[in-house]
Design brief:
Keywords: Disulfide bond, Signal. InterPro entries: C-type_lectin-like, C-type_lectin-like/link_sf, C-type_lectin_CS, CTDL_fold. Residues 1-17 form the signal peptide. This is PRG2 protein. This protein is an alpha+beta fold and 154 residues long. It has one domain (41-153): Mannose-Binding Protein A, Chain A, CATH 3.10.100. It has 3 helices and 8 strands, in the order αββαβαβββββ. The protein has helices at residues 3-12, 50-61, 71-84; strands at residues 28-29, 40-48, 64-65, 90-98, 101-106, 128-132, 139-142, 148-153. Strands 1-2-8-3 form a 4-stranded antiparallel beta sheet, sandwiched between helices. A hairpin with a 2-residue loop joins strand 4 (90-98) and strand 5 (101-106). It starts with a helix and ends with a strand. Residues 1-26 have low confidence and may be disordered.
Length: 154
């Protein structure tokens, strides 16, 4: 990647670093991906609401918030996020009502085939968005308007 692009990405907070101060992007390929496609993941440390995080992933990286489909990928993303932040980042899951029932879904519309909820989560009161704990790797429901770092897949 050209140095000027790296600097621009670093200033925008879109590229994570191999070492937090180095400025070189670090991408982690997915162990498994939907439709046989391999994704790369970037931790964005600037804090945004869930909807702003989604928009950032789409517009800047041409991707989406990360969907997690295995325990191995969950662990990999937890370790990656922990390298750059102690805040639990948004991932691409949300919980809402559909036909009178609470359901969890991925914002990229991929199948819901894995979950790693903390005890008592997800919350079934209002629509919530999901964070991945950098401490224990468990997922927790949070109000979608909170400002959090996030993980993009692209």
């Amino acid at each position: 990647m050209p140095p000027c692009l790296l600097l621009a990405l670093a200033l925008l907070g879109t590229a994570s670093a191999s070492h937090p101060a180095s400025g070189h992007p670090r991408d982690v390929p997915a162990a498994t991906a939907k439709g046989g496609r391999r994704f790369y993941y970037a931790v964005v440390t600037s804090r945004r609401s869930y909807s702003r995080a989604e928009k950032h992933c789409r517009e800047v990286l041409r991707g989406e918030l990360a969907s997690v489909h295995s325990a191995a990928l969950n662990q990999q993303l937890k370790e990656l996020a922990r390298t750059y932040t102690h805040f639990s980042p948004w991932i691409g899951a949300f919980t809402t009502t559909a036909n009178g029932q609470w359901v969890s879904q991925w914002s990229d519309a991929s199948p819901w085939n894995f979950a790693n909820w903390a005890p008592t989560h997800p919350h079934h009161i209002v629509t919530t968005c999901t964070t991945l704990s950098t401490r224990d790797g468990l997922w927790r429901s949070r109000p979608c308007f909170l400002l959090r770092p996030f993980i993009c897949q692209y």
